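_Backbone structure tokens_
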Amino acid sequence: MARFTVTVCTSKRPQMLSRALESLSRLSIPNESSLSIVVVENDHEQRSLSVVDQFRSSHDIPINYYFEPKIGIPHARNRAIEAAIAGNCDWIAMLDDDEYAEPDWLLQLFDGCIRFDADVATGPVTQVTDSEPPHWWKPISQSRRVTGEFRRDAYTNNVLFNSRIVARDGLGLRFDDRLTFGAEDVDFFRRAHAKGARIVFVAEAMVIETVPGSRLTLGRILQRTYMVAAAAVFLDIMRDGYPKTLAKRLPHGVRRFFIGILLMLAGACLWPLRRFAGEKTMLKGIISVTKAWGNLSGFFGRTSTYYRRVDGA
């Protein structure tokens, strides 16, 4: 009998949390298995306890609520891990509060772990918007990845892993609480991979992310681009040291900067003749320069405040 615990960390999004939990109530699980849910609220005040209480009163699935006032994604995820371990689960799944899962999500992830003898299974995220997106916006695409592809990283927006990865008598891993600006999941699963954990991609294990309109502005997209670029350098410095990271990342960042400038100039020249093509080219240039600036900031330890603002409700 396999015991599954699905953890959901949430902050200031009770409506989205309610939808996420409802999707979990429809999950299929393997025969002779059990399912429980852990919700960790990471906030200065309890906004979502009533959502959990309402779910508990209308469903038979065991659900536990925890309040983590220390702000930062790693703190919330570690609290969720401790709660899951306390429940003696065999497998821990993670889902974001702005997502909802397909009914066969957990089955597909578990089947992937069994079929490919993996400790971790991760799957794709399909993005949908709650308003009309800008014409230049493109959702994240993972179409090139196939089931059975082994990876060295995974993301907490769609993942299932064996509890031995976090158990005290196993690998005993926890999320690095320095990474409050993001990329804590990349770091966590790369460390798991380095210690021998097998990570497999399962294309059939689908979750859907609702992207609020406030996250689709150019400014917000550039903030996220900057965050990802800065975090990538910061993680490399943590893992490989400053000299090696400098040699690896600096030329790449400089190339990004100059390519971005050229694209912006080309876009400005195209704009009067072919507005759409000019706009698209200019946007690529702006994104490239933003990535370069994020890389440079990462060298100086300047991280992003992207996650201090919560989009959605």
Summary: The CA atoms of residues 33 and 248 lie 47 Å apart. The chain is about 45% helix and 15% strand.
